[in-house]
Amino acid sequence: MIWSGKPDENKALRGWEIPDEVEGEAWNEKRRAAAAIRALLARFIESDADPETFREIRVHAEAMSAALDGKPWSKSGELFKQGQFFERHLEMKDRSVMVGQSNPVAPVIKVTEEGDKVIGRLVLDARYSGAPGFCHGGIVATVLDEILGHAAIVKGYGVVTQSLTVRYLRPTLIDRETYCEAWIREVSGDKVVCVGDLYVDGQRTATATGVFVDVKGERFQKIFSRAYDG
After folding, report:
1. Which of 20, 75, 198, 218 is the most buried (most CB within 10 A)?
2. What is the pLDDT of residues 95-148, one digit of tens each?
3. For the chain, what are the domain ranges?
């Protein structure tokens, strides 16, 4: 287990922000390995190298995959069913597909709270390409879903997405200065409506409205337990 603290022992666990500094050599090394794999993937996708180079990369990749065989592993769904998920909440969030430094697929959105808004800064590289030089529209929607959700989370709501409407205003170019922002527009009962925008080089490329449902507490347990029980 990379992180084994209890909720009351770690203030950050009860919040939303993944710390830059984490406990444990294994967790820190996993982050460094993930960063190296991210850089490799971006270079690999755009590479026009010779067959020998790709063959060497394949051999190394197969060897690295084999090195993980037989090592301990954990899946978030299994941890939830075993009642251990919240003990390792930060570690699981650090595996997230959008913000997780331990996830080689993630663009690693750095989320900060600034007044009534949350701001996300990120890099969209070749891993997220759609049309030539553009970010795939599904990735744009996922980034916006993430930042809109954080707008609610930082205010204490434990939300899941009910609906997301995205309007694409112009192409979102990759390998450019990219950031997004979001804020709560209204709250009605357990519904939290958030809005936000994505920018590239200071130009707004997409805007979104999301309806989120607050499921924190016992409701969270019931919803997820029902999902896993079928």
Report:
1. 198
2. 999 999 999 999 999 999 999 999 999 999 999 999 999 999 999 999 999 999
3. 107-229
Q: Pairing between strand 191-200 and 203-214?
A: antiparallel
SS3 annotation, 90-157? HHHHCCCCCCCCCCCCCCCCEEEEECCEEEEEECCCHHHECCCCEECHHHHHHHHHHHHHHHHHCCCC
Answer for the pair 111, 118: CB distance below 8 angstroms, yes or no.
yes
Asked if 17 and 111 count as a contact pair (C-beta separation under 8 A), the reply is yes
Neighbours of 140 (CB within 10 A): 24
Cα dihedral sign, 14-216-120-79:
positive
Predicted confidence at residue 15, as pLDDT, reads 54
CA dist., res. 144 & res. 166, Å (int): 8
CB 61 within 8 A of CB 41: no
Cα gap 14→86, rounded to integer Å = 10
Fold for 107-229, please state it. Thiol Ester Dehydrase; Chain A (3.10.129)
